[in-house]
């Protein structure tokens, strides 16, 4: 089956990118110690019951020839889902997750706080609720190192509520 770019993307395997043979030796001797723990699937490649040869997996996507793949973990690709992600959502066709689900959610929360902070800091006439929110959001961002200016932080914490 071809994707929207004419590439044969029939399978999606569990992959471990290894840059050199030394990494491969480390992986073989320590078994799964060098694997990154996936929040849903753990560290170990799973046999999912589909039968794809290594050649089929390598031919299904250009990148799979350059990484260590586990053919027993390969699953059939959902072309309609790939098309939706590319055409509707605008994601690059070769995109791959870099962070786990928990890390992405934590990063999203930080971005939400940063947006709220920017919104509140620009506002001239804040309500009591907005002043409390600003103090909370600013302190949370300061604690994680997102905000670094101590004097600015002190000014925010000294804000008085409207009588």
Rounded mean pLDDT is 76
Poorly predicted runs are 1-9, 16-29
Order of helices and strands: EHHEHHHH
The 3D shape can be described as elongated
DSSP strand (E) fraction? Answer: 5-15%
The percentage helix is 40-55%
Strand order, biggest sheet? 1-2
- Give the tally of structural domains: 2
Number of strands: 2
Structural class comes to mainly alpha
Can you summarize the main beta sheet?
A: 2 strands, antiparallel
Oligomer designation: single chain
Rg computed from alpha carbons, rounded to a whole number of angstroms: 24 Å
- Distance separating the two termini: 68 Å
Report the total helices: 6
List descriptors.
163 residues, mainly alpha, 6 helices, 44% helix, elongated, disordered N terminus
How is the secondary structure organized here?
Elements: E1 11-16, H1 21-29, H2 54-60, E2 68-76, H3 79-88, H4 101-122, H5 128-143, H6 150-157
Antiparallel strand pairs: 1-2
Helix pairs in contact: 4-5
How would you explain this protein's 3D organization?
- With about 160 residues, this protein is mainly α.
- Helices cover about 45% and strands about 10% of the residues.
- It has six helices and two strands; from the N terminus they run E-H-H-E-H-H-H-H.
- It has helices at about 20-30, 55-60, 80-90, 100-120, 130-145, 150-155, and strands at about 10-15, 70-75.
- Strands 1-2 form a two-stranded antiparallel sheet.
- Helix 4 packs across helix 5 (about 130-145).
- Mean pLDDT is about 75; it is low at about 1-10 and about 15-30.
